[in-house]
Amino acid sequence: MASVASPVIFKEFCPLYYLLNAIPTKVQKGFRSIVVYLTALDTNGDYIAVGSSIGMLYLYCRHLNQMKKYNFEGKCESITFVKLLSCFDDLVAVGTASGRVAVFQLVSSLPGRNKQLRRFDVAGIHKSSITALAWSPNGMKLFSGDDKGKIVYSALDLDQGICDSSLVLEEPSSIVQLDYNQKVLLVSTLQRTLLFYTEEKSVKQVGTQPRK
C-alpha cells in the first residue's frame, strides 16, 4: 500500500527581536552619532554571527541566550563577511572592507575545550574587500577571497597559536563564493567557476563559456 504524503505546513517566522534589540542602532564617536548597519551574517546550531558597519562582530549564543561583542583593534571599518565553524573548538572568521581577516577561537564551558579567547590575524596579503571565506571541516585551513580576485590560504595551528598565510590563486575578477572539501576548493568569480586542487596546485574550469 502506497504511503500517504504528509501535508506541507507553512510557517510564518517573525523577526528575531531578541537578537536585534541587543545590537545598538547608533553609536557615539566623539561628537558624532553614527548609524549601525548590519553587513554580514552566518549561523549554525550554536551561534548567530552578525557583522556591522562599525567593525563590531555580534555573536549570539543560542544555548545561553547571550550576546557577545568582538572587534578589530585600530581603524573602525565595515565587516564584509563572517564564517562560523563548529569542530573541536568553536571558530569564527571575519573579513573587512580593507582586506583584514581575523579568526576568533571562542571560549567553551565544556571540559577539554578552549578556555581563553584567542585571535589569529591573517597577514596583510589582501588589500581590498573580503568577499568570501571557507573553512576546512577540522578548522586547520581557512581560505579567503577578495573583490580583486585574490585567494589566500591560511594554515592554523590552534595548539601552537600559529597562523601561516600565503597567496594561492589570483583571478582577474572578484571572488563571489568559496567552498572547500577533500583537498578541493570550489571557486566562483564574476566570470567563471573553477575547482582548485590544493595538493597539485592545479585548476579545472567548470563549464566552457564565461559568465556575462
Number of domains: 1
CATH architecture: 7 Propeller
Element string (H = helix, E = strand)? HEEEEEEEEEEEEEEEEEE
Could you tell me the CATH topology label.
Methylamine Dehydrogenase, Chain H
Number of DSSP-assigned strands: 18
Rounded radius of gyration (Å): 19 Å
What is the CA-CA span between the terminal residues?
51 Å
Given as residue ranges, the uncertain stretches (5+ residues, pLDDT < 50) are: none
Looking at CATH, the homologous superfamily is: YVTN repeat-like/Quinoprotein amine dehydrogenase
For the biggest β-sheet, the strand order reads 3-4-5-6
Number of helices: 1
> Can you summarize the main beta sheet?
4 strands, antiparallel
Percent of residues in helices comes to under 10%
Q: Name the CATH class.
A: Mainly Beta
Strand content: over 45%
Instruction: Indicate the structural class.
Output: mainly beta
Average pLDDT figure: 89
Silhouette: globular
Features:
single chain, WD40/YVTN_repeat-like_dom_sf, four-stranded antiparallel sheet, TCPR2 protein, 212 residues, Methylamine Dehydrogenase, Chain H, WD40_rpt, 51% strand, WD40_repeat_dom_sf, 18 strands, mainly beta
In summary, what is this structure?
The protein is mainly beta and 212 residues long. Helices cover 2% and strands 51% of the residues. It has one domain: YVTN repeat-like/Quinoprotein amine dehydrogenase (Methylamine Dehydrogenase, Chain H, 7 Propeller), CATH 2.130.10.
